[in-house]
Each structure stands twice: as structure tokens, then as C-alpha cells.
Hints:
Radius of gyration: 18 Å
Structural class: mainly alpha
Strand content: under 5%
Distance between the termini: 53 Å
Number of helices: 7
Largest sheet: 2 strands, antiparallel
Helix content: over 70%
Number of domains: 1
Strand order of the largest sheet: 1-2
Shape: globular
Amino acid sequence: xxxxxxxxxxxxxxxxxxxxxxxxxxxxxxxxxxxxxxxxxxxxxxxxxxxxxxxxxxxxxxxxxxxxxxxxxxxxxxxxxxxxxxxxxxxxxxxxxxxxxxxxxxxxxxxxxxxxxxxxxxxxxxxxxxxxxxxxxxxxxxxxxxxxxxxxxxxxxxxxxxxxxxxxxxxxxxxxxxxxxxxxxxxxxxxxxxxxxxxxxxx
Length: 203
């Protein structure tokens, strides 16, 4: 049986994630249906909100707002989308690769579905980018990130059909990978900006 998820399941994903996890555990989701039915639309939200918010008011990093040119805003939004896509695909592929070690289902479709569901709160929470104040964004997104990590630990053993202990270890390994990837991304960003590639914000 093939049971996929789509944007029409977004309410259940946010309010009844356990129900969605259990449905997916009894099926083999098709990767393309998961990606085009849910993932792509979720990944479009943060860059879209960033583009609208930054275009309208700039980023508030201190006393004075940081106003960027339309070209810079578009470039940042496209880069944001590209990084989200790379992050999604790499995490799903690594999840599928790790599955054999932890006795979990190695289905790439299940990994696509799991990562999409786990990331849904962050995608919806990115609506705060419409008001691009650094403090407000951190204040809103940190609790959402905690909820996202909880969903990963809760949903991984169910969707990938492994024991709670192994599921916790695998989820911890994925969190470790994401932290390393995030630090590397920050380093690459700083290097590129110092080379003059990106907006001039006085780094």
C-alpha cells in the first residue's frame, strides 16, 4: 500500500503528527509524490516570506534597519531556497543510508516523508520572516526548532519502523549531522561575504 502526504494533510501534520506517523509506517510513500505534494511547497515558504519581509522593511539587526537592493534580496532568497533543498535531500539520503545500521526502513520515500513532516513547523513558523527583526525571529523560531527536534525523535522510530532505542540513536546522529552542516554553512557564508560575494553588512 502506498500512502503519501500532501499539503492537504498539513493540518494533521501540525496538530496530529502521531496519526500521520502511524499512517506512513504502514505504507511505502513514493518519493516524487512526497516531494511535489508537500516538500516543495514547504521549502518555498521561508524564501518567499524572506523576500517579502526584506523587500518591505529590510532586516532589523540593530537600531537602524538594513536595507538591501532588490537584486540582493532576490539573490538571498534564491540562495535560501537552494540551501533548503540541499539540506532536505542530503538529510533524507543520509537518513536512508543510516537506516541499515540502526535496523530501520531504508526506503527513500519514507525518509522524504519523515524529513518533510519534521520540517513542517519550521516552514510554517518562518512566517515571522515577514517581520524581519532578528530578536523576534529568534524568539519565535527557537521554540519551533525545539518542537521540530521533538518530532524527529518521536516520529523516526515509527515511520522508519525501528525500536525506540535505535530510533533515538539514529535521530541523534541526524541532529549531529545537521549541526555540523549548519556550522559549515555559516563558515562558507562568512568566507563568501568577506570575498565580496553577498550584501555588504560590515562583516
